[in-house]
Write the structure tokens for this entry.
Amino acid sequence: MASHRRPKQPSRARVTVLTTAAAAAVVLSAQAADAAPGAKPSKDEVKSKVDKLYEEAEKATEAYNGAREKQGKLEKDISILQDKVARGQDELNQLRDGIGTMASAQYRSGSIDPSIQLFLSADPDDFLDKASTLDQLSGHQVEALKKIQEKQRELAQERQEATDKLKDLASTRTELGKKKKEVQGKLADAQKLLNSLTAQERAALEADQDRASRDSMRDALGGSTAPASGRAGAAYGVAQSKVGSPYVYGASGPSSFDCSGLTSWAYAQVGVGIPRTSEAQANAGTRIYSTSGLKVGDLVFFFNDLHHVGLYAGNGQVLHAPRPGTVVRYESMSTIGGPFMFGVRV
């Protein structure tokens, strides 16, 4: 007959050990899940990655602006050259008509000389190289042929210059397309990261930015820095009216801006023309390497490659269009994300 014994119960000590081991396994599993490649990043991690992408996008934006500015200049130069070539061709045709009329008159009088016959059937350059033939021409004919030769050389040079600029324009447009694609790629990646946050997390990030901007504005307006006078102060005043306007890459006002778009627009409103890109604006005046020497309205540059610029707002603050995803706002120079390089007094 089979024995019906009750199974032996584990001791209290054994239960405790098992429970502790199970709890540890849960903790380790949770930690492993957090560290897994597919784990959802925290709000702070997302912000750090987004800020980096926006910085890269802004850098590409300034390169895009430079290529677009170069494209505009090349298009203008080519248009001027093409007009010159067209006018030059008209002048050449008139000169040829004149020498042709002269030859016709000589032909009708039966006195056309071999030199004119040679001209009408050959290139004037080749003709004038034959010095012995010049002796057979009148002074008026020689002068007319020299003008034709000079105009032909001038036209050839202008046509070559236009051709070179057209090639440069084609490569510039290619570069422009690449930079535009790069900017759009960075912005799309940043937006994808932001979309991974909850609505509450996104709202918290925006609130942090708004609070920082208000604090910077208070510090700027309540600081001890004397406001600049003249056009720098006027440009700064104009820029203040654009606080809250969105950052849009390649934009230079009046409703949206990128960093150098804001500064160039603000100065243009008070009759001062400065270059379009931050790198070029760095040479628009006298450089000031100490923050203590800055005045309100001075241009201030950040990062080693000078891809960011703003307007000094006083008391260590800057008024600028920070980067994609933000608006024109005040910000402490210490939180820009890159080192302050120098200021420029236009």
About this structure: Confidence is low (pLDDT under 50) at residues 11-36. The beta strands are 286-288, 299-302, 308-314, 317-320, 329-332, 340-345. The longest strand covers residues 308-314. The chain has ten helices and six strands.
